[in-house]
Amino acid sequence: MSEEIGHALRPLPNIVHAEDQKPLFKVGDSIKVAMRFPIGHYRVPNYVRGMRGRVEVVIEPRAVNNEDEGFGLNAGVKRHYYRLAIPLTELWPNYTGSPDDGLRIEVFETWLERS
Amino acid sequence: MSSQAHGHTPSPEAVDAKPSYYEIMETAVRELLVEKEVIGPGEIRRMLEVMDSRTPALGAKVVARAWVDPEFRTRLLANGRAACEELGIDFFEDTQLIVLENTDKVHNLICCTLCSCYPREIMGLPPDWYKLKPYRARAVKEPRSLLAEFGTIIPEDVEIRVSDSTAMVRFLVLPQRPQGTNNWSEEQLAGLVTRDAMIGVVRVEIPPTNEKSQ
Question: Does the distance separating the beta carbons of A98 and B166 come in below 8 Å?
């Protein structure tokens, strides 16, 4: 029932959203995966750190930062994951397959920089 | 080893070896959780039962439905999890499912370079090779020669997309429906779809014996 009401109404104007509610990046944005190596297990494989690509999909819904969660540090903050497209030629300079071949990988917002 | 002379290796469970460091740690943590009544022994057994009920046959049914029902296919590609839930396949992990459609122009392959993320809800447990480092490393570094070892030659003008599962998302490859199956029933089609085709290391093909009976 609440869904019907939701569809019938338009969002009210002038609502200011907290910074982590809306995705920081949008589909098509050029990004760089942060180059950092904190101690511990992180869900960003080393081989994509420092690499450039673009946002292909914004993953909904928002999710907790499972890296904080893994260390018992989660404060309930949620942000977006992004499905990135990174050419294999970007990852491996000696890549011999088609230049169109690519990687797709989901990375949490805190690891992304504009490029 | 003498056991290999008999043509089979004993399963790890049958080997009378000392438990490893991690096996001991798992036992200790499990016993503590049971002792503190965080979980009961029945819950662990129940989860094993859940896992045993999930096999590639479920994924094959999803694929076959997508082949025969264009509207379902559209919903599956838009939201894999919701479409699987339509078929009663519930998700016990807080993960989304992206379904990757193979076409004449794109071939998808899935892997998990960090560990063994896999669409367990619809496929059950991953094969051992999927969890081993050679597959994990080569899938993202040299997918074409890796696929060739599975007997899958991808033409140069077909783009390979390797999806590396790291966190909240799992993948399922929607293979191409083989030619010459127009009159096949949904059930017959599901019988063609293999686990490896849904990982993306092979195509779906009609086995020679079935071809004759058609």
Answer: no
Q: Shortest CB distance from A103 goes to which of B96, B156, B164?
A: B164
Q: Which sequence spans correspond to the domains of chain B?
A: 21-53, 54-213
Residue-range domain boundaries for chain A: 20-114
Q: What is the pLDDT of residues A67-96, one digit of tens each?
A: 888 888 876 778 999 999 999 999 999 999
* Complex confidence, ipTM: 0.86
What was the pLDDT predicted at B92? Answer: 86
- Fold exhibited by the domain B54-213: Nitrile Hydratase; Chain A (3.90.330)
* Long-range own/partner contacts, residues B92-95 (CB < 8 A, 24 or more apart): B92/B50, B92/B121, B93/B120, B93/B121, B94/A63, B94/B168, B95/B168, B95/B169, B95/B170
Its pTM stands at: 0.86
Give CA–CA dist B105/B151, Å, rounded: 19
Q: Residue with structure tokens 């096949």?
A: B184
Given an 8 Å threshold on Cβ–Cβ distance, is B162 in contact with A100? no
List residues of chain A with CB under 8 Å from any CB of chain B.
43-45, 47, 57, 59, 63, 66, 81, 83, 88, 91-92, 97-98, 100-108
Q: Which of A107, A71, A65, A110 is nearest to A86 (CA)?
A: A107
Q: What count of Cα atoms within 13 Å lies in the side-chain half-sphere of residue A95?
A: 23
Among candidate residues B84, B117, B163, B165, the one labeled active-site is B117
Q: How far apart are CA A30 and CA B140, in angstroms?
A: 21
Instruction: Give the whole-angstrom CA distance, residue B145 versus residue B154.
Output: 9
Give the residue from B191, B163, B165, B180 showing the smallest Cα distance to B107: B163
pLDDT in tens, B54-106: 999 999 999 999 999 999 999 999 999 999 999 999 998 889 999 999 999 99
Fold classified for A20-114 = SH3 type barrels. (2.30.30)
